[in-house]
Design goal:
The protein is mainly alpha-helical. The protein contains nine helices and no strands. Helix content is about 65%, strand content about 0%. The longest helix is centred in the C-terminal third of the chain and has 18 residues. The chain is globular.
Length: about 190
């Protein structure tokens, strides 16, 4: 598994192919999720290098489908991962694990393994962080550009419903992010 080459490849693809109107789902989000996944992985006791490499790779590829489609981007991300990663020395079994993590991030999230729980929590890590408001603003701009929300009030209602129904999967994310997530929710009410 050559994680470094797999990362260089997908980062280059993002720079070439991502829409300028992906204000939230841009390269910055992908790199943020990769960092959060590795941090949560450490907190969750994921020590073996193969698992850490699979987690990082899944985080780097989890939104790659946005290069081609907005809806059902997870399936497209798996297609991209399956095609690209075999060229970087990933086994079919490793690619299946990565695709499981990518598909687990689909809303509503449905993780089945510990690594899938970690990436799900990393993908929505910002909900419980101090930078929640500016990041949420980028998602509002992205959805508004696609006609999926119209104004701030309707966007805030969507956020309240989403956050109210959201739960972090791992104990580490619960301890690290839940209190701040509830504080962030209060700012929307």
């Amino acid at each position: 598994m050559n994680v470094e080459k797999a990362e260089v490849y997908i980062v280059d693809q993002f720079r070439q192919r991502l829409s300028d109107t992906l204000y939230y789902h841009g390269l910055h989000h992908t790199l943020d999720v990769a960092n959060a996944a590795l941090h949560l992985g450490t907190l969750e006791g994921v020590k073996d290098q193969e698992s850490r490499d699979l987690l990082k790779t899944a985080a780097l590829y989890h939104d790659s489908g946005f290069m081609y489609t907005y809806k059902e981007h997870e399936q497209e991300g798996c297609r991209i991962a399956r095609k690209a990663l075999q060229g970087f020395g990933y086994s079919p079994e490793q690619i299946d694990i990565i695709c499981g993590m990518i598909m687990a991030t689909r809303i509503p999230q449905s993780p089945k393994t510990h690594l899938e729980q970690i990436i799900c929590d990393a993908d929505l890590d910002y909900l419980g962080r101090a930078d929640f408001e500016p990041i949420g603003e980028t998602l509002f701009r992205e959805l508004k550009a696609r006609g999926m929300v119209t104004d701030t009030d309707s966007w805030n209602a969507v956020q309240v419903k989403f956050i109210t129904g959201h739960s972090y999967w791992t104990q580490s994310a619960q301890l690290l992010r839940e209190i701040r997530k509830q504080e962030n929710l209060k700012t929307l009410l």
